[in-house]
């Protein structure tokens, strides 16, 4: 197993009692390695050659009409580029050893989902600042230096494609959410469940952290305080279990001392893994994120439906739009562009509804482009 941290202020080394060594895979014990990815260093290293080529290609050269070469600072400042490089490093590690399990410790929730959305955002940004037709024009022109630059851009887009394929593969990629048993924590877990579904990711399990253990009967103000906190947490925990339905919810009790070092972490993990195995035997989240079917009619009178699994989404936050061949769906403060199936691209949206678990969008053929 390889444990990777994407946090810009990682604590993996501290947790295992090791000195920090960003960018270096280190063995903690048999079967466990750790890696702290420094995405800023990756950015500086991977784009150094591209910046040099861009500067050389732009010096004293008249570009063809309609072609504008992006400035180096615009490329290195692309939104999400650090996140894309970090995710590609993970995709590379997975490809190097497909049998190895890679566990990624992400930063805070909003930053984590921003990282997961970065590949599409970066690809869209590249297309905006340097469209494909301009890249083709540059690559087939007389300046060989521009051909090299285009090749670098295309290589970057290929890497983005590899990342998106890995994230979309629900047999290889899943998410575990971690929260706390209080009202704010429960609300955050609901929102993260919605974000996970909207992103098309498979939710593997939920870990509820920091639970007060059962110390039994006691007397005094301290015992009363602990008992009251435990009862409040248990009430929230019961709501979380009920709300998440068939998703395993694992209980993680607060320890008297911070678990630092391999021995302490090993004992902690054994208890959690036993509960995890028991829950997984009874539960599974195998719902396809997007399902398309023919509902009724034939030809231009047909009606098609696209169901998008959005459990726990707040109906008041749902938004829907269409951009070319993509459906843009928003929920709980984030948006996702969903590429429509080929048949639906020749249709228009006729209506939408939300049944509490699925967003149902109906399509009817556009007579102007529907095959007769």
Write the layout of secondary structure elements.
Blueprint: E1 2-5, H1 12-15, E2 26-29, E3 32-36, H2 39-46, H3 48-58, H4 72-76, H5 81-96, E4 102-105, H6 109-129, H7 132-139, H8 144-168, E5 174-180, H9 183-198, E6 202-211, H10 221-244, E7 249-253, H11 262-282, E8 290-296, E9 303-309, E10 319-323, E11 326-331, E12 334-339, E13 347-354, E14 358-365
Parallel strand pairs: 1-3, 1-4, 5-6, 6-7
Antiparallel strand pairs: 2-3, 8-9, 9-14, 10-11, 11-12, 13-14
Record keyword descriptors for this entry:
372 residues; alpha/beta; Rossmann fold; Immunoglobulin-like; four-stranded mixed β-sheet; four-stranded antiparallel β-sheet; 11 helices; 14 strands; flat
Describe the structure.
- The chain has 372 residues and is an alpha/beta fold.
- The chain is built from 11 helices and 14 strands.
- Residues 59-69 have low confidence and may be disordered.
- It has 3 domains: 2-168, Rossmann fold, CATH 3.40.50.300; 174-282, P-loop containing nucleotide triphosphate hydrolases (Rossmann fold, 3-Layer(aba) Sandwich); 290-365, Immunoglobulin-like, CATH 2.60.40.790.
- It starts with a strand and ends in a 7-residue tail after the last strand.
């Amino acid at each position: 197993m390889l444990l990777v941290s994407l946090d810009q202020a990682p604590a993996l080394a501290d947790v295992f009692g090791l000195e920090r060594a960003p960018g270096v895979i280190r063995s903690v014990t048999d079967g466990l390695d750790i890696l702290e990815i420094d995405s800023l260093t990756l950015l500086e290293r991977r784009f150094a050659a591209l910046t040099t080529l861009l500067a050389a290609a732009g010096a004293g050269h008249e570009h063809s009409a309609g072609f504008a070469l992006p400035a180096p600072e615009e490329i290195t400042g692309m939104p999400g580029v650090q996140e894309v490089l970090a995710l590609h490093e993970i995709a590379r590690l997975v490809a190097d050893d497909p049998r190895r399990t890679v566990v990624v410790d992400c930063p805070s929730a909003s930053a984590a989902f921003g990282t997961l959305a970065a590949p599409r955002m970066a690809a869209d940004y590249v297309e905006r600042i340097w469209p494909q037709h301009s890249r083709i024009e540059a690559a087939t022109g007389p300046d060989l230096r521009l051909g090299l630059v285009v090749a670098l851009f295309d290589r970057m887009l290929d890497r983005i494609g590899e990342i998106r394929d890995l994230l979309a593969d629900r047999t290889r990629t899943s998410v575990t959410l971690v929260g706390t048993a209080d009202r704010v924590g429960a609300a955050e877990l609901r929102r993260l469940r919605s974000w996970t579904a909207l992103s098309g990711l498979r939710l593997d399990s939920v870990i509820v952290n920091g639970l007060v253990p059962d110390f039994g009967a006691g007397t005094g103000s301290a015992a009363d305080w602990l008992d009251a906190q435990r009862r409040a947490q248990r009430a929230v925990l019961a709501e979380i279990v009920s709300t998440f339905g068939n998703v395993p919810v694992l209980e993680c009790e607060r320890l008297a001392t911070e678990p630092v070092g391999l021995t302490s972490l090993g004992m902690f993990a054994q208890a959690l893994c036993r509960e995890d195995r028991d829950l997984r035997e009874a539960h599974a989240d195998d719902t396809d994120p997007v399902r398309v079917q023919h509902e009724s009619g034939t030809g231009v009178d047909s009606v098609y439906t696209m169901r998008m699994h959005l459990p726990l989404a707040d109906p008041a936050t749902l938004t829907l739009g269409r951009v070319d061949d993509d459906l843009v769906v928003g929920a709980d403060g984030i948006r996702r562009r969903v590429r429509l199936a080929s048949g639906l691209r020749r249709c228009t949206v006729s209506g939408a509804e939300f049944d509490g678990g699925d967003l149902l969008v109906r399509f009817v053929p556009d007579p102007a482009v529907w095959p007769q």
